[in-house]
Amino acid sequence: MIAPSSAPLVLLVDDDRMVRLLARQALERAGFRVDEAENGIAAVRLFDQATPDLIVLDVVMPEQDGFETCTLIRARPRGRHVPILMTTASDDVASIHRAYEVGATDFINKPLPW
User: What Cα–Cα distance (Å) separates residue 28 from each residue in 1, 35, 51?
Assistant: First the structure.
C-alpha cells in the first residue's frame, strides 16, 4: 500500500538496512509515508528538505549518532516541536536520560515490534 501524499511523513533513521525495511513496511501498511536515512548526517539533510511529522531515530550510528542528530534537529526552528522517538538496543539508564536531555519526545528499546 502506498500512502497518499497527504499522509503523515515519518523520517526513519537507522544504520541497519533490515530494520529500515521492516519499519518501512509496517509504517506504510499503517498509512504513513516514509523517508529513510542511514545515518544522522543524511537525516538532518532530509529534515531540512521536508519536515516530517515524526522522526524514529536510532541512537548508535556511524558518522553522527542519534544524540547529536536530535540536538541538531531541535536547534532548527521547524525542529522544535516534531516528535522524536529514539531507539536503541541498549537499555542503560544513562542513554535514556541523555535521549531526553537532547530533546527526544520518547525512547523505546529495540527490537521494535514492527
Answer: 6, 11, 18
Q: Which of 24, 25, 26 is nearest to 36 (CA)?
A: 24
Closest CA to 21 of 7, 9, 36: 36
Q: Record the pTM.
A: 0.91
pLDDT in tens, the chain (114 residues): 556 678 999 999 999 999 999 999 999 999 999 999 999 999 999 999 999 999 999 999 999 999 999 999 999 999 999 999 999 887 778 888 999 999 999 998 887 776
